[in-house]
Amino acid sequence: MTSIAHERFHAVAEEPAYARENAPAVGRSAPAAISLTGLEKSFGANRVLRGINLHIPAGQFVAVIGKSGCGKSTLLRILMGLDEPSAGELDFEDADGAQASPNTRIVFQEPRLLPWLSVADNVVVGLGDGIDSRAAAKAADAVLAEVQLGEKTREWPARLSGGQRQRVALARALVSRPGVLALDEPLGALDALTRISMQELINRVWRELGFTAVLVTHDVSEAVHLADRVIVLDEGRIALDLPIPYPHPRRHGNPDLAELEGRLLAAILGTDGDH
Ligand SMILES: Nc1ncnc2c1ncn2[C@@H]1O[C@H](COP(=O)(O)OP(=O)(O)OP(=O)(O)O)[C@@H](O)[C@H]1O
Hints:
- The protein is an alpha/beta fold.
- It has helices at 17-22, 72-79, 119-125, 133-146, 162-174, 192-209, 220-226, 255-269, and strands spanning 33-43, 46-56, 61-65, 87-93, 104-107, 180-184, 212-216, 229-234, 237-243.
- Adenosine-5'-triphosphate binds next to strand 2 and helix 2.
- This is ATP-binding cassette domain-containing protein.
- InterPro entries: AAA+_ATPase, ABC_transporter-like_ATP-bd, ABC_transporter-like_CS, ABC_transporter_ATP-bind, P-loop_NTPase.
């Protein structure tokens, strides 16, 4: 495993006006650091995660990549509290290193929208209960504008394209201003051009809002375009921990990124030592 001294290569911009004025207090949390220590997960005799040690600083964007079945989604589910580890520890820390319980949200490959609710009401679902309905509607409209769906707030999900539906799912995750956002192959079902525009959108909202992001993807190009750091999982272990030391936003076709993509592919396919 290659360990890295993390540096922030992106400047988190000052909080945008829409976020200050329209984000409700409910759920809102500062970006949190994530620490995994000796994390293990078994399903019966199947040892899926085998002693994962990983520290993700607050605000970092990490991509997790690896062969099908290597444990990526299991790791993400444990991070989100959707599954329990068999052994080891998961801790969140605030900027002072104190234990934290950040607001965490996840976006899946399928948008999972409720078909009987409008686009705006689907986003309001992301706020949970206990928030004034006018404040919730205002927050939903603002975040929908941020994901360029300001024209579609009253539309039904069935009348949107696949990319638009996934932008609603992203807006539903962002409306409560999470400190940690998990992305489980969120662009996997989209065509190549929509993927690129969604990558730009994810990169922009991350730079603007500054949450900690963990992205599971099969796409090495997506990983090096979005992440500060890419973790390659192999049979439940970290096979490579690769920093991507370039400022955001990143250009497609950059030869330095192409070289990193090659290294990642070799690590995923287990051909690092071959010539
Ligand atoms: N709830 C479960 N019960 C039993 N086995 C499970 C469960 N969830 C995952 N597994 C097993 O854990 C292993 C890792 O699955 P996981 O979904 O984490 O892999 P992945 O790397 O995300 O795969 P993919 O890239 O195909 O989505 C697989 O062998 C899978 O069958």
